[in-house]
C-alpha cells in the first residue's frame, strides 16, 4: 500500500499557488491519479486559518469542479512560517508530523514534496532552513520517507548565478531530490515530440541534416506588460524569460539523439549533449545572427514598452528576440535553427516547423533560373499552443488538365481524440514530482549549458552596443528579423 505524501507549498498566498498548483492537484485528485493518500500544506508568512486559506482558493475553482472541491479541501491545511526563523521551521515540522500521525502514519514513513513557489532569492535560504531542521534528509532513492524539492523558474539570471544556486542546493540535497521545473515540458504536445520522433519509423530516418533544410521554433505572445509585470520583465527580457528555458528546452527535444531508454537520465543526457553542442556566438556573430527589439505603440497598443509601469525610461531590454543558431554535431551540422520569441505580437502561438529539402530535380518544370526559388513542398509543423497537434504538408496534383501542383495537409489534433481538455502542464509535472520521475525536469548541468549559450549573446550585445530595433505592437515583429533566413529558406511562419 502506498504511503501518505505531503505536498508542502511555500508561497501559499501567491498567485501561482491559487491559479496553477492547487487546481492541478485538484484535477489529479478528481481523476484518481495519486498512488496513495495526500495532504496539502500551504506555508507563508501571513497569519490565517485553514478555513480562510481554503476560502481564498475556492474563488479559483470552476463551478464544474465545486463538488469534487468539497471532497478535496479537507486535505488542505495552512501553517504560517518564515523560513528565516528556525523556531517557525521547527513548528512547521511539528505541524507536518501531527498531520501524519492523525492520518495513522509515522512521520518518517511519509514522503514530503516541498514546492518553492517563492521569489528566487528565497530558494537557497529556504532549503538551508529545511536542511538544518532535518526536513530534507532521506536515504538515496528512498521508496518511502522520501524528500524532494521543486524549484520554480527563474533558476539564476546568468551562468554565474545558476552555478551558485546549484552549489548552494547541493550542500543540502542530492541531484535526485531537486526538481527544477519548466512548465513547458509538461505540455502534452511537447511530450509528444519524443513519441512522434522515436515511435514512428517514417520520421526518424528523415530527422537529420540530409533531409531537413531548416528548423524554426517560435514562441509568440500577444500579451505585453499587463498589470505590473514590467517591473520584473525589465530585469529579464526575452533572453532570460523565454529563450534560456522554454525555447531551448523545445530545441533540445527536437534535436536530441535517441536515448537508450526512457529512463530519466537517459533522456536528460541526450538533451544536455544538444545544449552543449550549440555553437556559442562571438560578438561579431551576435551582430550578424541575432536580432533584438522592443514593441512600440500602435493602433493595437497606446504605449511603447518604455512607457509601461516599472520599465526604465532608457530601457534596452528586449521584448523580442530572434536568432539563427547552429548545432555542431553529426546530425545537425550546417542546419540553421531559427529561434524566435516575443511579446505584443500579432498572434499567440507556439510551434516547431521542420522544413525539408527540395527534391534534387523538378521533373515537371525542369531546371529553374538561378534567381527563382524552388517551391518547398514539405514541412512538418508541431503545434504546441493554443492549437495542439501535428501538420504535414506535401504537394498533390490539382484535378483537371495539366500537371498543376498544390499544397495539401495531413493533420492530427489532440481535440480529435475525444478525451476532453488537454491536461494542464502543472498537473502532469506535480504528479511526476510526487512519484519521483524527473524526466520532464531540468538537471543542473542542463540549466548551466543553456545559460552558457544565452550569456554569450548578452555579452555580444554589450561588446557591440547592439541596437534595439522597434516593431509596432500587434505586428509580426521587426522586419529585419526576416533577414535571418538566407537565400530561398523563406520567412517566419505566421502561425496556424
Walk me through this protein's architecture.
The chain is an alpha/beta fold. The protein folds into two domains: 5-152, Rossmann fold; 185-422 and 442-484, Dihydrodipicolinate Reductase, domain 2 (2-Layer Sandwich), CATH 3.30.360.10. It has twelve helices and 15 strands. α1 (15-30) packs across α11 and α6 packs antiparallel against α12 (444-464). The longest helix has 26 residues, at 230-255. The relative contact order is 0.14.
What is the strand and helix layout of this fold?
Blueprint: E1 5-10, H1 15-30, E2 38-44, H2 50-58, H3 66-72, E3 76-80, H4 86-102, E4 111-116, H5 123-132, E5 147-151, H6 159-170, E6 178-180, H7 188-198, E7 212-220, H8 230-255, H9 264-277, H10 283-289, E8 290-296, E9 320-325, E10 337-342, E11 349-356, E12 379-385, E13 389-397, E14 405-413, H11 425-435, H12 444-464, E15 469-472
Parallel strand pairs: 1-2, 1-4, 2-3, 4-5, 5-6, 7-10, 8-15
Antiparallel strand pairs: 7-11, 8-9, 9-10, 11-12, 12-13, 13-14
